[in-house]
Amino acid sequence: MIFRYSEEAKENVINDVSFKIPSGSTVGIIGATGSGKSTLVQLIPRLYNINSGEILIDNINIENIDIELLREEVGMVLQKNTLFSGTIRENLKWGNKSATDEELDLVCNIAQATEIINKMPNGYDEYIEQGGANLSGGQKQRLCIARALLKKPKILIFDDSTSAVDTKTDELIRRGLKTYMPETTKIIIAQRILSVQNADIILVIEKGEVVASGNHETLVKQEGLYRDLYLTQGGVVDEE
Ligand SMILES: Nc1ncnc2c1ncn2[C@@H]1O[C@H](COP(=O)(O)OP(=O)(O)O)[C@@H](O)[C@H]1O
Ligand SMILES: [Mg+2]
């Protein structure tokens, strides 16, 4: 597929990108700032339409899927998703009004948000300020993840959405997703190699192109951005 933000733009922001994601798998996306990662995932719920090529979900071109249905099936958690003023329960149930408390408990457990709720004097009924001003960045991110899970989308996209969460919690969230949401396709954009290294497939993006792809073991063996990042983030590569 090819995508550029405006017709006048000379360069494509996404250029000749092609990949397949098996349903239920986890895909990691790594790349420098400005390489096109956020743009790429925003094409899935059609926040923008591609200029050429096609995107298929279950073999159906997304242009032929009702836009509201498409956006229900594709959940996205951003680095700075917003919480509104209201109770935690109201915030979590935003996309799924009929969710039960048991469902809330499960998604909070997966998103590592249970301890946040437990610490609140009023639990789920605790009132939070506009933008979640009385919560830390990591707490907000975990609640936003729980909210996205409650919608039970087919595809869940995390765009730098655990950046304020410590690495141990980040790992627990990914493990929970794998265990409790095996049928959901997960796409994880991250700065930390740790966040993607257990993914089934990792795409390395440079200037709008997929320059390498494979699992962690394959990518660390190749010279390139992935291996460089891994080494600068404290990884060790066995020389053969
Ligand atoms: N809404 C937009 N309109 C025009 N250009 C944009 C827009 N959003 C991003 N870009 C440009 O597209 C390129 C890729 O950006 P982005 O997808 O945000 O990269 P990443 O998420 O990897 O940091 C950048 O050059 C950026 O300036
Ligand atoms: Mg981005």
Question: In a nutshell, what does this entry contain?
Answer:
The protein is an alpha/beta fold. It has helices at residues 37-42, 67-73, 88-92, 101-110, 114-119, 137-150, 167-180, 193-196, 216-221, 225-232; strands at 26-31, 56-57, 60-61, 74-78, 86-87, 127-128, 155-159, 185-189, 201-206, 209-214. The chain has one domain (26-232): P-loop containing nucleotide triphosphate hydrolases (Rossmann fold).
Going by CATH, the architecture would be 3-Layer(aba) Sandwich
Question: In DSSP terms, counting alpha (H) and pi (I) runs of 4 or more, how many helices?
Answer: 10
Task: Give a quick account of the main beta sheet: strands, pairing sense, barrel closure.
Answer: 6 strands, mixed
Order of helices and strands: EHEEHEEHHHEHEHEHEEHH
Number of domains: 1
- Shape field: globular
Multimeric status of the protein:
single chain
- The proportion of residues forming helix, as a percent range, comes to 25-40%
Average pLDDT works out at 95
Which parts are unreliable, with pLDDT below 50 for 5 consecutive residues or more?
Answer: none
Listed once per kind, the bound small molecules are: adenosine-5'-diphosphate, magnesium ion
Write down the CATH topology: Rossmann fold
Radius of gyration: 18 Å
**Strand sequence of the main sheet, in spatial order?**
4-7-8-1-9-10
Beta-strand percent range: 15-25%
CATH superfamily: P-loop containing nucleotide triphosphate hydrolases
Assign the structural class, choosing from mainly alpha, mainly beta, alpha/beta, alpha+beta, or little secondary structure. Answer: alpha/beta
Distance between the termini: 37 Å
Number of distinct beta strands: 10
